[in-house]
Amino acid sequence: MVPLDTLRLLLADVDPDRQVLTDDHLTGYLALNDIPDPQLEIDTTDRWRVRLAAADALDAIAVSEALVGKVIRTQDLTTDGVKVAAELRAQAAGHRARAAQERAETDEDDGDSIGVLEFHPWR
Length: 123
Fold this sequence. Notes:
Structural class: mainly alpha
Helix content: 55-70%
Strand order of the largest sheet: 1-2
């Protein structure tokens, strides 16, 4: 799956008729996280970057929701933009934590580091 599609999936922004963010917006978030071409497959060791892009996008949506949403009550319906924003920020934090974990796992496997083992000579 290409980064743009993966990012839409992580954001649950997959309905083409009701997308919250445009492809240009998402391409920008991917570029900010060092993924220059959202239509090219990326190496599995860089997939954590897509999660960081998702976190950035969720933070932006949260800011917008907090600024615009406020608390709105009409007849039997109530929406609370501040609570929605808090949930979006929590999801963003979850993506950042998962990205850090995935990055650490790929850093361990990339062969660019050395390991230190305890040595027990024969007695």
